[in-house]
User: Fold this.
Amino acid sequence: MKQTRIQPLLATGLLLASTPALAHQAQDLSGGLWAGLSHPYNGLDHLLAMLAVGGWAALQSGHQRLTIPLTFMLMLAVGFVAALMGIHLPLLESGIASSVLVLGLLILTAARLPAIISLSLIALFALLHGFAHGSELGSAVALYFAGGFIVASLSLHLVGGGVMNRLQTRMPILARTGGAALVLTGANLVTSL
Assistant:
């Protein structure tokens, strides 16, 4: 029984003690598909945001369980293409770090917003994440890279949703603890910029 209570505290402590590993720092992306598949797992901000999108979607009812991640995937691609077209987007890293914070708040409070608000918020976050990915490389490997990071992001949505479904039915307090950990980590990411 004690181990169950210690695990969320340990996870929260590890997240708070970690330094930001932003997914949008310069790195070798020449590997095309492989670089795209692995990229979302290499940065704390993107990894947590992708898991949180799936987790928050799992807390919704009806069609939003599906439209939240689908909207995210669509706008992720739009942001990626916009960056390849040379469009400039200010405050990119702050927006991405803030997405972790806000998604954590949404999970912590188990927020169920009207569809227009939920989808607009998710679309904005996805646009930022996609834009950051697109601004990192030239168009030579862009298609392969995009395919890879979109598939990897979707896999993280599914994992986040699956974990949230399980936690909601078995240990709802852990679902809220995960939201709190995301809030604290997002705040840490925002203040570390």
Summary: Residues 9-29 have pLDDT under 50 and may be disordered. The chain has one domain: 45-191.
